[in-house]
Structure formats: structure tokens, C-alpha cells
């Protein structure tokens, strides 16, 4: 599924929907170039989970955990591991009761979880604010997650 996002507000809108239908143990692997909008999307997901705390990019800490929402949010950014995928011990988060959102998660390679929703944000070469976001479910839990996102989006149009 591909969706056009015309500005950051639209990205936040989709992200809120995603956060509002996330279930315990769901995982999102977020891909896209620097500045594509991965952290912006995570902020909207946090709002959808009912977290009102400020979301800070975990680039230097790898993981930040937020417990004030409907579900815990485990926000990770594995950019700093560069291309030497290492066992960072993230499985305890993937297997936890919260929603894991991993910026640059594809860099985990063999340490990727087995079931995840792949969300890729692509910039437009002409319009500074335009993005294409594509969703792909890997595994049955992610399929159910994507179905709930679909349904909620339909309810909103
Ligand atoms: N449609 C859009 N969706 C998300 N961010 C956008 C959009 N248009 C412009 N932006 C801007 O692009 C930047 C994205 O930054 P950020 O979310 O930190 O990216 P990343 O985490 O992918 O490096 C922000 O400054 C945001 O305001
Ligand atoms: Mg980021």
C-alpha cells in the first residue's frame, strides 16, 4: 500500500492512526533517507498512543522508552551501528508488551525481528514537503496490524 503525504501534518495524521491501532508486541521498521520523516512519524505514533511527552531522536542512545501511553513505546534508532549489524539485544523489546519503532531498522540485517510492519518514506525530488509512504507487512501479526490501519483510514475519509 502506497500513500502520498503532502506535508508534515499529513504524515502526523497517518502516524496518529498507526499509533491508535497498535497492539502489544507490534513492531515497525522505519526506512527512508536522512530527513525523510522517520522521527516526525514516530512523534505522531506517540500521540496516537496517548503519549504527551516530547519524543527526542534516540540517535545517540539507540533506544528511548515511553511508558505513559496506552502501550509502552520503544523508540529505537540504529543508524549508528552503520553496516556492521551487531546483536544489540533488542529482542527483549521486540518481544515486550509495547510497540517497537526502529528507525533505520533494516541495518539490523540478521537481527531483524521475524514479524514486522515495514514502513518506507521516500522524498519527492521536486516538492520539499511531499513524501510517499509505503507499507508492507512481514508476518501475520504485521498483516493484522496493517488491516487495522487500513480500516481506521477508511473510517477517516
Ligand atoms: N510530508 C512530510 N512528512 C514528514 N516530514 C516532513 C514532511 N515535509 C517536510 N518534512 C520535514 O522533514 C524533516 C524530517 O525530519 P525527521 O523526521 O527528523 O527525519 P528522519 O528521522 O527521517 O531523519 C522535518 O523537518 C519535517 O518538518
Ligand atoms: Mg530520525
Structural overview:
It is a single chain. The protein has helices spanning 8-21, 38-48, 91-94, 140-156; strands spanning 2-5, 27-31, 63-66, 73-77, 99-103, 116-123, 131-138. The mean pLDDT is 93. The chain has a single domain, classed as P-loop containing nucleotide triphosphate hydrolases (Rossmann fold). Helix 1 crosses helix 2. It is globular and about 40 Å long. It is an alpha/beta fold and 157 residues long. It contains four helices and seven strands, in the order βαβαββαβββα. Residues 5, 7-8, 11, 32, 34-40, 103, 129, 131 line the site of adenosine-5'-diphosphate.
Q: What is the first-to-last residue Cα distance?
A: 16 Å
Q: What is the strand tally? A: 7
- Secondary structure tally, helices: 4
Name the CATH class.
Alpha Beta
Strand order of the largest sheet: 1-7-6-2-5-4-3
Rg, Cα atoms, Å? 14 Å
